[in-house]
Design a protein that fits this description.
By secondary structure, this protein is α+β, with helices and mostly antiparallel strands. The chain has one domain. Helices cover about 20% and strands about 25% of the residues. It has 2 helices and 6 strands. Strands 1, 2, 5 and 6 form a 4-stranded antiparallel β-sheet that branches. The protein is flat, with a radius of gyration of 16 Å. The protein starts with 16 loop residues before the first helix and ends with a helix. The N terminus is likely disordered.
């Protein structure tokens, strides 16, 4: 069954560093870097210089153009090799709501 994020939009759900760690542990996400195997990450904070991190998948529209939709992500990089890791922030926010942590 799919869980949908149904929080009151007037009360945004923030994500702390500890929320990220707790979410990853609860979902059994590996902390190993896929490139070098190290486990020390740095999370770029939201907003960073006034910019929220978003990913923009480009979907061809069949007429030579494209459509783009954005969604928020958290961004971390490996402190050893610089590998970038992204996770959809709505997943962490939904997990917080499900667990009464908002």
């Amino acid at each position: 069954m799919e869980t949908r994020l149904t929080t009151d939009r007037s009360r945004p759900v923030s994500i702390s560093d500890q929320d990220v760690v707790d979410f990853m542990e609860a979902r059994q996400v590996s902390s190993n870097c896929p490139c070098c195997g190290r486990t020390v990450w740095h999370r770029l904070k939201e907003p960073f210089y006034g910019v929220n991190y978003k990913i923009s998948p480009t979907i061809p529209d069949g007429y030579g153009g494209s459509q783009s939709n954005y969604f928020d992500v958290i961004v971390m990089y490996c402190m050893n090799c610089g590998f970038l890791r992204q996770h959809a922030s709505h997943m962490i926010k939904a997990w917080k709501v499900e667990n009464g942590r908002q």
